[in-house]
Amino acid sequence: TSTVFSHWPWQQWANEQPNATAIIREQQPISWQHLADEVNALCRLFYHHGVRSGQGVALSGKNSPELLLGYLAILQLGARVLPLNPQLPEALQAQLLPILNIDWGWSIHSLAWPDSVKSLPSFSIEQLSTSNSRTQLMADWPSVQALTMTLTSGSSGLPKAAVHTPEAHLTNAAGLLQRMQFEAGDSWLLSLPLFHVSGQGVIWRWLQKGATLVQRNMHPLDRALAGCTHASLVPTQLWRLLEQNADKLVLKQVLLGGASIPVELTERAQQAGISCWCGYGMTEMASTTCAKPADATAGVGMPLPGRELQLVDNEIWLRGSGQALGYWQQGEVRPLSDSQGWFHTRDRGEIRNGELYICGRMDNLFFSGGEGIQPEDIERVLVIHPLIEQAFVVPVDNVEFGQRPVAVIDALPGLDLSQLSIWLEGKITRFQIPDEYYVLPAELKLGGIKVSRLAVKEWVKSLS
Ligand code: 4YB
After folding, report:
1. In this prediction, does ipTM exceed 0.85?
2. What is the pairing mode between strands 343-352 and 371-373?
3. Ligand 1 pocket, 236 CB below 6 A?
């Protein structure tokens, strides 16, 4: 059953279980009381600089104890928080922040914010004075305001900011945790960035249960995971973990998502003693919508409690708990669902034997000599190859066929690209076999948690 909150969750846990461990920073346990004191201290600092309820605050950076405190403090002040990928190009940032009505910017490093954005001072946890904790700056709870802004990675144009209430995040978390066991005493590694919905998903599950969050340097991953019972990983992270000698792990559950999850991966994890859950989620739904314990099929189960699913002409439509209020644009919240509340995902899906299968993005479909090619159909086969970690199939223009597929491969050492077409024969139809294979350049792996398909496409184009 889900917790009913009558305060901001971290304040409520500080009242109910002040000495329980809220966070483990590297190896150091932090109690709920101490965490609440830190958040209060940071609220005072931000308030002192001028941050007020209703304003927008961007937090740029990789995960850190300070970044998480910033996220909680901004919410507690009733301001909108926009976690930003520190790799976001400055020009894009300058374009976006005014549209998103961002008043303040904070980052660990001094960052050049656009003129319209005032910079908040960097601080370190040690500097926060947690003694004067009686004065509490706190917006009303429950908060029905749109307080979190999470950028989507659209395939074209400017990213959009999905806005959620804290309640929406908590009900998304509650639905998953009705299925997946995660209790007080368990610890979830903050293994994905806060600027992505998957990182925020970890935060709200932790808050929902009053369990323990683990914040550590993520390299190497097996060290970061030591002692953790739960983690959220994208498939590539789990592949890499399995290549390390992950024997000291006490992991009970790994929630996978963000991309197609090969059965080969979850089976190898199972052999290493790691139980996986296969999830399907997205920014607009505040992370996971469907999930199941990994089994022999490549589906993602059915909607979790509180969510509904419908297939319309093979497109996945979703609604229910976790859904964003809309996209923020110039002070307004533009609805993202139809008049019945359905969000049209642009993902193609099928229901077979009572579970949902994700076929791919509708926008990725292209045509070659009149035949439709869904790149994900080819990618799913390529990643079965033991030396392939990730694969992206993109179209290139072709005089004879209109477009032809080429594959860009993130491979382990030793892969012979020239043998891949032969390896693919019989596994996919002839017209799906890529014309060319390239190695994924390292710079395309730097961005967020996912490689941008658009960037791959542009890189391939730049080769010709
Ligand atoms: C998929 C997919 C799948 C998403 N098969 N395509 O907490 C979690 O749920 C979680 C745990 C571990 C890793 C990631 C997550 C996420 O939240 C992922 C959410 C996400 O990726 N959001 S997104 O807005 O960046 O992209 C959404 C899109 O990603 C979907 O519309 C799908 O196209 C794709 N996707 N899960 C195949 N299991």
Report:
1. yes
2. unpaired
3. no
